[in-house]
Design a protein that fits this description.
Helices cover 79% and strands 0% of the residues. It is built from five helices and no strands. Helix 4 runs antiparallel to helix 5.
Length: 145
């Protein structure tokens, strides 16, 4: 039987660790991305297009997870024009990551290098870029005053 006290402590710790929550949410989005990429490659979709399509599915999952479980402590704009703007900036950050991902994977495919190995490189670069953009711009908590 699980120790509910330890589980509660772990959950409390996780609530206070934004980067860790971001990492976990990103793993969920990455699972969608990678699973979709593999499926699309098996369907003979060209590597760059497959990477773009898979990444786009990951974007949707990422927004849902980040806005509900990571930046839900004041960083998510209220409904209305503020939320619409935030979504536009979020999608813009995601499209920048998409360009990085597609570019790296396409270049690897053109050079005959492993698409999957370079997908890992693309994910690392895109993850770092998006964490910084989302923490400092997209979900920035407005200053009080």
């Amino acid at each position: 039987m699980p120790d509910t006290g330890r589980i509660a402590e772990a959950c409390a710790l996780l609530r206070n660790q934004r980067f860790l929550r971001y990492l976990i949410a990103s793993v969920g989005a990455l699972a969608m991305d990678m699973g979709s990429l593999l499926a699309l490659l098996r369907l003979d979709v060209p590597a760059g297009l497959a990477a773009a399509m898979a990444y786009s599915l990951g974007i949707v999952v990422q927004w849902l997870l980040l806005s509900r479980a990571v930046f839900n402590d004041g960083g998510v704009a209220q409904r209305g024009i503020g939320r619409t703007r935030q979504k536009v900036v979020f999608v813009s950050s995601a499209l920048l990551g998409l360009a990085v991902t597609s570019g790296i994977v396409s270049a690897a495919a053109a050079l005959g290098v492993s698409v999957l190995a370079n997908k890992v490189l693309a994910v690392t670069i895109s993850f770092t870029l998006n964490w910084l953009l989302r923490k400092r711009i997209v979900f920035r908590v407005p200053a009080e005053g």
